[in-house]
Every structure is written in C-alpha cells, then in structure tokens.
C-alpha cells in the first residue's frame, strides 16, 4: 500500500501558478468493497529567480509633475508560489523618489515610483535608479532592472479619466471583437497636446494583452482572445491615457473585468467499478456500479443531476421545461413518454392536455406521440410559469389512465430598454434643479430614477454622463443615478447647465436610453422660477393674481415718484424765494429787517492811531461788509456816536443803550 514517486516532480510544470498543487487518486479495496480517495500536495521550493521582462526601463517625467505622482514599473515574474514567490521590491537611494509596492487581486506584487520631491530639469537632467525584486526564500533570490529617468518639460495639462476604476462583466467564450468597456479621458489643452492616445500600462501582464484589445483612439476595450471562466474569473487591467504633446501627460485607470460563467462544460462520468452479472434475486439497494461525476462549471452550471436515460423501465411523474421568451410559435418543447406492459390495443397510448380551456390557446399536445407544442410567443414580463396536467390513457376496455404534471418556465431575454421615471421624458414641462453658487464638491443635486422591466442581470442599469455643458462640474453615480458636484462651484461657472445621462442595461445585446437634466446655479429658488414663468400652463388660474400684483406695484411706484417730484419742486421754490429776499436786502444801504439779524461793532485797539474800523456783520457768516473809515478822534465815545449816526437810528439807540463801557485805546 505504499505510494512512491515514479519520476522527478516539477511543481511549476504540473500546476503553474495554481496553489496548492495537488494530485488526486482513488484506491478500490475489494472483499469487502471500499473506495478510498487520496490527494498528494506538491510543495514548492525556491528554485526560480524573479525575472524582469527587460534589463532596462526608461521613463520620461516632466519637471512640472507635482509631488505625490505615481509611475507604474514593469513587474518581475517568479514561477514559484507562496513564500517563495515574488514578495517585495527595493529601490536604490535617491532624493526624489520612493517606492510603493501594491498587491493585485490575485496576490501578485507590483511596484510604483512615487515622486516625493519635485524634479528640476535645470538642476538635474536625468536620474539612474536600480529596482530590485526579491522573493521570500531563504536565502532570497533577486533580480535587478536599471531605470533611466529623463527629466523634460511637458504641457501643463495631463489627461484626466472620468473614473479611476471601471467595472465590466463579460461572458466566457464571448466572440472576438465584443465590446467590454469604454474608457474616457479629457485634456484641457488644445491641438496635439489635447489629443489623447489610449494604451495598456507598462505593468499589464502579457496574458491580458493577448485576451483584450484596446482602441488607441476611442478607448474601447474589446475581447481579443478566448475567455475561460474556469481559468480566470477576474481580470485587473491597467490602462493609460497619453496626450500628443512634446512631453506627453499621462493618466492611469483600472478596469475590473468579471468573467461570467457559461455552461460550456459537459459533466464527465467516470465508472469506478461495475459488478456484473447481478443475481436475479438481488435485494433492492444492492450496489451494481460506482460512478464519479464532475463538472468544471461553477454555481448552478456545475450542479449535476444523475438520472437513468430513457429506454429502460423507469417512469417520470413530472416535467420541468425552460423556454426562452419571444419564441417562435409552433415549436416543440417537450416529449412526454410512457409505457404500458399490455399488448395490442390495450397498450395503445393516447396523450391529452387536461384543462384545455385554460391553456388551449398556448399549448397543444400530439395525441399519438406526446409531443408538447408551444402555439404562441411567450413574454417573461407577462407570465413566468405555466402549470398543466397531461393524461396518458390506453385503448383497453375499460381504459386505464395516469396523469403527469408539466411546469413550463419562461426565461428572460433582454427585450426591454430602461425606462426613465424622473425626469419624465414624455412631458412638456421643464424639470430644473437648483444648486447654490459656491456649493462644495460631493453635494448631491438630483437623481435620475429609472426601471427595467426585464429580470436579473438584464435589469441592472448603469448611468453614464454622456454630454454636459461643463463636464468637470458634475458626475453621476454608476449604479444609483445620483448626480453630484465634482468640484466646488465658482463664480465664473455658467448659470445654466444641461446634462445628458446615458442609461444602459447589462443584457445581451445592451439596450439603452437617455435622460436630460437641467440645472440652474442661483442663490434662491425664485431666481429660477422667474426664468421659468414662460413655461407655466396657459390655463393657470393664478395668472390673474400675478397681473394684479404687478399692477399694484406699478401704481405704488408711480405715486411715490409723483410725491418725490412735488417735494423737490416745493424745496426749489422756497430756496429761490429766500435767495431773492437776500439779494433785495443787499441792494439797500445795509438795511436790516430788525435789530436781531445784524450787529454793528466798533473795532479798536490794534488799528493804526489815525483810523478805526466799523464792521457790518450779518447772521450769514459768509458776508462781512466794511462801512467806512474816519479819522480817529480823542473821544472814543464821540467817534462811535458819529459813526453810528451815519447808520439807522434804531440801531444807534440799541447799541448806545447796551454799551455801559467803552474800550480805551490801550485796550
């Protein structure tokens, strides 16, 4: 019973990258009968060095690239697995770059250069680095690649992808040329600096390049080779967009392609042991054969039902039939078979569909051979399941009959495009959503609501921004249709935006529709409603209220204007009247309306000895008149009285009556 190694075992040749690597066997022991299953696991040793695709790599990096930028490097390959496989990368010491080691979905490692200090072409035109790949063996094996970096000037706007990660699914065995995903990037530059070329990133495995093709102009990713779900279930594809500038700007994105399993593998039956002949008096349950059944497909496609083929005595009391919707009328979908051990007329069988009034317009059965026909085209969205009874009757007297149940299930096809519920496409009203100026990035503005009448995968709707007034301002959720601000709104943004959203299902073929969203940038909702008054219905009863409100505002404004005009005219009239009065008073010999408006004063003291001044002052501080100059006399009182007598008598009496003390010449 010893299990021996027959020849030298090479794990990489037997299993490749599959881990764990195991070989299965079965042993049959007879008398008594027993079946044993065994598995031999082939363990890996570190007998392979990591290998780079080339010994040198060259990068062109613009000096305008900001710190934090990443540059993918070519990955090394190590056929060993587990701890002996490629584990990490190391970068030679330098002042500008650091190394970031990432892990893919399948556990493999790849490295990216991270710019920590901005480059200066005038200071250093090129850099030479060494990238080392190390496995986890003891001692570790390694490989090296020389990285030459040219520091050059580039245009100042690099392409930008509208998504950093794209997700798509495709059935295995899909024909070559089938569209998988369409990536999209934009570049704000003009001319060649704004023209974009799509390509695979440098660390995309060669196997992926053999299976997928990328259109360099349109960004369409299509199937190129034969996809096999049993080999790989998920592909992680790294793509880049590069403009045509002298120093091209580069943007990177990732496409996750899920391979959907198709029932493309038939079950494999292995007869382990057969015991023949079988005694005629063998008890029920006696083992006559040992079978082993395997199916390489997954999930429901890999489930196996074992049954005995027709033509031998064993009967079926129910049938399940699956029919694709939109079928051709008149096709046969099932053959109900039965046997009768009698002879002659007693064994002649006839088939009848019971409850013919219920499904008679949909199904028909051949009375002689039991073939069930479908008379019309079925619709999965109308009805999913039909249940009926078929009666089998012999020709004896009295006739004997038995019933068998038949269930017909209608499977879905992608025959319905997504239907937009909001905004409603079949209405004359305009749906306008409002967003305030200065709204930050990530704010949800509105949401596109849609349904798909199909079922399952055919009803899964994805939303894509097809057209926009400003593509950089808004973004749409891929699976929920929510429209967000991609950046903060600025003052120079357009006040009105129109977005066209493309809605696609995930059926085969893909069906799509579109929805148009109008978004206004305004502080208040009333600013938008003012622009939308022209779309109000003609029979709106509130239009009369609006008319009267506008008329009232006009009348109040007119009354206010007339009042202000009247006040202005009155003020102007009063000003002119006071001006004329003032001019008339100056035309007389300093005549004043009364003693309280004018003051005469004799100034003395610091004037020359032979003169004194009599000054005429008015209550208006802007006017001052000099009356006269007379020789100075020895008596201040006499000179004062002489001067005053030249004026009005009333004023003379007032001043003389109030002057109890006159200044001396010294004062």
From TrEMBL:
<keyword id="KW-0130">Cell adhesion</keyword>
<dbReference type="GO" id="GO:0007156">
    <property type="term" value="P:homophilic cell adhesion via plasma membrane adhesion molecules"/>
</dbReference>
<keyword id="KW-0677">Repeat</keyword>
<keyword id="KW-1003">Cell membrane</keyword>
<feature type="transmembrane region" description="Helical">
    <location>
        <begin position="547"/>
        <end position="570"/>
    </location>
</feature>
<keyword id="KW-0812">Transmembrane</keyword>
<keyword id="KW-0325">Glycoprotein</keyword>
<dbReference type="GO" id="GO:0005886">
    <property type="term" value="C:plasma membrane"/>
</dbReference>
<dbReference type="InterPro" id="IPR002126">
    <property type="entry name" value="Cadherin-like_dom"/>
</dbReference>
<dbReference type="GO" id="GO:0005509">
    <property type="term" value="F:calcium ion binding"/>
</dbReference>
<feature type="domain" description="Cadherin">
    <location>
        <begin position="162"/>
        <end position="269"/>
    </location>
</feature>
<keyword id="KW-0472">Membrane</keyword>
<dbReference type="Pfam" id="PF00028">
    <property type="entry name" value="Cadherin"/>
</dbReference>
<feature type="domain" description="Cadherin">
    <location>
        <begin position="1"/>
        <end position="52"/>
    </location>
</feature>
<dbReference type="Pfam" id="PF08266">
    <property type="entry name" value="Cadherin_2"/>
</dbReference>
<dbReference type="InterPro" id="IPR020894">
    <property type="entry name" value="Cadherin_CS"/>
</dbReference>
<protein>
    <submittedName>
        <fullName>PCDGK protein</fullName>
    </submittedName>
</protein>
<dbReference type="InterPro" id="IPR015919">
    <property type="entry name" value="Cadherin-like_sf"/>
</dbReference>
<keyword id="KW-0106">Calcium</keyword>
<keyword id="KW-0732">Signal</keyword>
<keyword id="KW-1133">Transmembrane helix</keyword>
<feature type="domain" description="Cadherin">
    <location>
        <begin position="53"/>
        <end position="161"/>
    </location>
</feature>
<dbReference type="InterPro" id="IPR013164">
    <property type="entry name" value="Cadherin_N"/>
</dbReference>
<feature type="domain" description="Cadherin">
    <location>
        <begin position="315"/>
        <end position="420"/>
    </location>
</feature>
<dbReference type="Pfam" id="PF16492">
    <property type="entry name" value="Cadherin_C_2"/>
</dbReference>
<feature type="domain" description="Cadherin">
    <location>
        <begin position="427"/>
        <end position="539"/>
    </location>
</feature>
<dbReference type="InterPro" id="IPR050174">
    <property type="entry name" value="Protocadherin/Cadherin-CA"/>
</dbReference>
<dbReference type="InterPro" id="IPR032455">
    <property type="entry name" value="Cadherin_C"/>
</dbReference>
